Amino acid sequence: MFLTVLFAALASDDRELIERLQRRDQQAMADLYDRYGRLTYALIFRIVRDGGIAEDLTQETFLRIWTRIPVFDREKGALGAWVMTVARNRAIDYVRSVQGRMRDRSVELDSSENPALFTTIEANILNTDRARRLKQAFGSLNENQRIVIELAYFEGLSQADMAERMKQPLGTVKTWCRTALIKLREELGEALTV
Amino acid sequence: MNCDELRGSYELYALGLLDEPERSEAADHLSRHCPVCTPEYQGARSLNALMSTLVSDAAPSKGLKRRILASVGVEERRGWLTWLPGIAAVAATVAAVVIGLQLREQSRERELVSAELRQMRAAVALMREPETTQVTFGKGPQGRVLVNSKRGVLLLASNLPPVGPGKTYEFWIIPKGGSPLPSGLFQSDVNGNAMHLVPGPLDVGATGAVAVSVEPDGGSPAPTTTPIIVAPLTE
Questions:
Q1: CB B44 within 8 A of CB B36
Q2: What are the tens digits of pLDDT across the range B168-210?
Q3: What angle, 0 to 180 degrees and rounded to 10, lies between the N-to-C axes of helices A26-48 and A2-10?
Q4: Is B218 left (phi over 0), alpha (psi -120 to 50) or beta?
Q5: Among all residues of chain B, which has the CA nearest to that of A46?
Q6: Residues 103-122 of A with CB under 8 A from B
Q7: Which residues of A35-72 are buried (b: 16+ CB within 10 A; e: fewer)?
Q8: Is A42:B57 a contact under the CB 8 Å cutoff?
């Protein structure tokens, strides 16, 4: 039920919200949080597994959005996708810092948040129908495929790191990743085309 | 590698997680604006965005929204808002920055970050003192001034653009009936945020206001430009 209510709210046009944020409309920031705050927190919490840290990183996410929204493309930009990318990056960067790994990949995380990249994703990518189809598709993967997907998206592990964690050959892990992602894309089909 | 061999790779490429040799191959296809791989990459980024919906629901604390709004200088609309939660929200903001800096201390920027960390810790200590008071200011630059007789004065400002080469922001403490006293120089960051701490003690009762002006590098003994922030310490 939560997802239904959440995505019904998200389905409304973000363009007006972006325009208000760019005008520094103070209530717009509150509306942005109401629209994406809970999902942002849930995503970060999934990655960092600590409520206090998740709240701090959620705050950092919204601060970053507020700071960079002036250069976001109001007409073409996918606001929800951008917020989720910034959120995930904050969480993955934190986890990597704590674990002392892959600091050189922070530059890649930062570049993946470039607002210009979000003009080629559909503005309404986070909708109920796609979320439901993705959940079904994910459930149809085998166990190893689900594990590698989760290690990538929610722990930020490279394929080499996954192979080490799962004690499997790198080639095997690469095959699991590729097969899983092809299957997800096929299940979602036209839902992901712009 | 051909396009078909790269199918299923662009999601991890977009996340920065694809290993070699696929990583270089994918980069090469995209740099050539490959008509097959370019839309494949866009679809991959769409899938990546959608993956966030796989997480289970988790609810943050009720105070998070207020903290977030406070960190961008926005007061949540409430009929009974008091100043105490505002200070707690700002303290939480700075504490979050302290966490970030503590992590960065492990990097090559150790000395610079350590200095920042010491300042941040002093700022958090000031905010946590029970007798600390605060005033807010601004419609252009926005923020708060927190005052404590033992620990000093703390400025937290946003919407304060970097001043550029040859210039600096200068902080002034203005005694009641007196002239502005130079109280330190600072810069804002690329995001327009700034923090400046004047360590205590401070005769709060004798202090009328604080101000910020733009001055030449090295500062001035008296303001040479019209202050862009003036915050009376009694509201």
A1: no
A2: 999 999 999 899 999 999 888 877 788 899 987 888 888 999 9
A3: 140
A4: left
A5: B55
A6: 103, 105, 108-109, 112, 117, 120-122
A7: bbbbbbbbbbbbbbeebebbbbbbbbbbbbbbbebeeb
A8: yes
For the segment A64-82, the average pLDDT, to the nearest whole number, is 89
Residue of B nearest to A95 (CA): B103
C-alpha span between B57 and A82 (Å, rounded): 20
CB contact under 8 A, B42 and A194: yes
Contact (CB<8Å) A192/B50: yes
Contacts of A43 in chain B (CB under 8 A): 52, 55
Q: Please give the residue of chain B at the shortest CA–CA distance from A107.
A: B16
Q: Among B141, B95, B147, which residue's Cα sits nearest to residue A57? A: B95
User: What average pLDDT does the structure give for chain A?
Assistant: 85
Convert the pLDDT of each residue in B40-97 to its tens digit: 998 898 899 899 999 988 999 989 999 998 888 776 654 333 333 344 445 555 555 5
Residues in chain B: 235
**CA trace torsion B15, B18, B23, B27 (10° rounding):** -20
Out of B8, B16, B103, the one facing A178 most closely (by C-beta) is B8
For B60-82, the DSSP string reads PPTTHHHHHHHHTT-----TT--
Mean pLDDT score of chain B: 80
ipTM associated with this complex? 0.85
